[in-house]
């Protein structure tokens, strides 16, 4: 089941944080740096976030996607899947849900340049690579765009 998450509720933010940290630790290994900002977030930081969060549940939270709306542009901020639930199609379901609910919008998303699974996922939905950029010292990302 996919539903909106109320990240301001402590219990919800704790569940999000509990899967965000191990998921981003894996990305940190892929890109060779633990300086990824979400790794430094606390439960309170998640509660204060102004992103919109959508979660995927099967008995418990298995993953979530977050975004901000900027006019006709949807900026995907994060896609987080519990590592115990990798390769089950959850990321694809969350991306598809977002695309379906914002038809006619443009989408942008960035991921670690070395995060091949994420890059393949976005490409499978028709996202095209725009550019590679250094998000922080020695942290290289790829930005994608989709006109839906």
Automatic annotation (TrEMBL):
InterPro entries: Acyl_CoA_acyltransferase (IPR016181), GNAT_dom (IPR000182). Residues 10-148 form the N-acetyltransferase domain. Pfam families: Acetyltransf_1. It comes from the Bacteria. This is GNAT family N-acetyltransferase.
